[in-house]
Amino acid sequence: MTVEKWVTTVPAITLVEGELLGVVALGHALVLIRHEGRLYAFPDQCPHRGAPFSTAGRLSGGLLLCGWHNWTFHLDTGCQTHLDSVCLEAVPIRERDGHLEVFVKET
Ligand code: FES
Asked: Distance, CA 66 to ligand 1 centroid (Å)?
């Protein structure tokens, strides 16, 4: 049986507006993003060839760009800008008691 639960990651102050932060929660490598005050979390792996967004990517406006081959993804939908059938699965994220929590499956 798979269990999902909120897991505390890093102090909220660690996630700077406009930067990408890689974390591991219950074995899931995630990239955390704060953009225009909103929080986002996605798997830290580009679906094209597996580049880690947290080290190979960057933000541009409301887009997450992969630095390896320039695939870009809308933060709000997680979908690739040219192939909207390719989407990142957004991971629920929230700020609680000064820390960032993500909702992930226990493995
Ligand atoms: S690995 Fe991300 S665009 Fe190719």
From this structure: 6
Please give the distance, rounded to the nearest whole angstrom, from the Cα atom of residue 83 to the centre of ligand 1. 13
- Give the span between the Cα atoms of 37 and 17, in whole angstroms: 7
pLDDT per residue as tens digits for the range 7-40 = 999 999 999 999 999 999 999 999 999 999 999 9
Chain centroid offset of residue 59 CA: 11
pLDDT at 84: 82
Atom of ligand 1 nearest to the CA of 69: 3
What is the model's pTM? Answer: 0.95
Domains of the chain: 4-102 (2.102.10.10)
